[in-house]
Amino acid sequence: MRDLGAIVKAYDVRGLVPDEWDVDVARAFGSATADVLAAEATAMVVGHDMRPTSLSLVAAFSDGVTARGVDVVNIGLASTDQLYFASGALSLPGAMFTASHNPAEYNGIKFCRAGAAPVGRDTGLADVREIAERILNDDGPRRDTWVSRLQTPAERSLHSQAAAPGRIDRRDMLAEYAAYLHGLVDLSTIRPLTVVVDAGNGMAGHTVPAVLDVPGLTVIPLYFELDGTFPNHEANPIEPANLVDLQHAVLERGADLGLAFDGDADRCFVVDERGEIVSPSTLTALIAVRELRRAPGSAVVHNLITSHAVPEIISENGGTPVRTPVGHSLIKARMAETDAVFGGEHSAHFYFRDFWRADSGMLAALHTLAALGSVEEELSSMLAPYARYVLSGELNSRVEDVDGTLRAVESAYAGEPDIAIDYLDGLTVEHTGSPMWWFNLRPSNTEPLLRLNVEGVDRITMETVRDDVLALVREAAKGE
């Protein structure tokens, strides 16, 4: 019996090819996706990254979709946010073939409903898995069973009558994507800037030449050749080691800033003119201020791992900060509930109401360039007001008894003066007096890990709290 549990994650499909999935699985996913996500559509949009296995997986997936009588709009090579653009502009559900920053032997699928609406385990992905497994295991009346569960007679009729196979149309939407982004962030009046861009051999090598072809902007490319084997470094800029080449290039070329994108180019990291890495929380605060100027009084969503400076700055600029757990589906849902103009995560995912609430690393890059290009300051000086505190970054500890360790850490702080504890996502402990500090300790969704993030008013405070919590985690682990 084929079980897809190992590759169907909370928000996407991801695994080793061909060890964990292959073209047969991709074809089953195509049919299942057509049944679940295209229930109110006659077509879906499909894009892919530069990985060696992407073309064959897309072809098989498209076969599965068209076998259900649903058309495919194949946009070819694309960043993930370009796929979201296509889904939004065409009002179609979508599937993006990518494993983001994972090594070359991985591939995956990110799904969305029409209008780039998120899809996760509780919003359709579990159903896709169920139907795909039935197809692979040849388990009974797969399609009729699903059709009977559709919500409305119109949906049931649409899928029951799909006798003819769908067709595949190819459409290059890169120019439309670039034009749409330029309509959201205007770079036409910025002062001359020099920017080094590290594409990591990923999809930014495809999108940056189209989007950053702007008068006055000099782009120095690093690793723009599309190569899914990642010959230079991992396309994972959250790891500092993968930013070293960018930092050196910024200093050597005297650039105003550097930009680094992950493999599918939906995340963007920034390096300032000194070669220093800019915290994604700092960028969240900067972009929030810019979006609040355009939409005064709006809500801005941030996850609980971002710096305390983020909600402070949102409030100071007339916005309403909305705190959420970690996870893009949760961010997008809260943005919809609150009509938030913008959302940011500590992992450098940035979400925009005018981009169908989807995340776009390229839009974050454009905001940074527009902000810097409108002042005569260097980037480090411009961002200084947004970087108020010191963050530890995410620290992982392997523990077997995750719940027991969390209880042990909680008990060490419960009842202490000026301590507030909440459980929005794992365990968050905040010192409400002086000096300011807080930490969050939350379990991984996929491994026996606890992820620690700490922030303090200064480095000494942060490091003291960090070391204290790590000592508690290690002590609890000894007793397992």
Layout of helices and strands:
Layout: E1 13-16, H1 23-37, E2 43-48, H2 54-67, E3 71-77, H3 80-90, E4 94-97, E5 106-113, E6 117-118, H4 125-136, H5 142-149, H6 153-160, E7 168-170, H7 174-184, E8 193-198, H8 204-211, E9 217-222, H9 244-253, E10 257-261, E11 268-271, E12 277-278, H10 280-294, E13 299-303, H11 309-316, E14 320-324, H12 328-338, E15 342-344, E16 350-352, E17 358-359, H13 361-373, H14 379-383, E18 390-391, E19 395-398, H15 402-413, E20 419-422, E21 427-431, E22 437-443, E23 449-456, H16 459-478
Parallel strand pairs: 2-3, 2-4, 3-7, 8-9, 8-10, 13-14, 13-15
Antiparallel strand pairs: 1-5, 4-5, 5-6, 10-11, 11-12, 15-16, 16-17, 18-23, 19-23, 20-21, 21-22, 22-23
Helix pairs in contact: 1-2, 1-4, 5-6, 10-11, 10-13, 15-16
Pfam family, one: PGM_PMM_II
Domain Alpha-D-phosphohexomutase C-terminal: 394-470
Protein name: Phosphomannomutase/phosphoglucomutase
Q: What proportion of the residues is helical, as a percent range?
A: 25-40%
Query: Using only CA atoms, what is the Rg?
Result: 23 Å
Largest sheet: 7 strands, mixed
Uncertain spans:
140-146, 150-162
Q: Would you identify the CATH H-level superfamily of the largest domain? A: Alpha-D-Glucose-1,6-Bisphosphate, subunit A, domain 3
Approximately how much beta-strand content do the residues carry?
A: 15-25%
The count of β-strands is 23
GO molecular function: intramolecular phosphotransferase activity; metal ion binding
Keywords: Isomerase, Magnesium, Metal-binding, Phosphoprotein
Domain Alpha-D-phosphohexomutase C-terminal: 394-470
Protein name: Phosphomannomutase/phosphoglucomutase
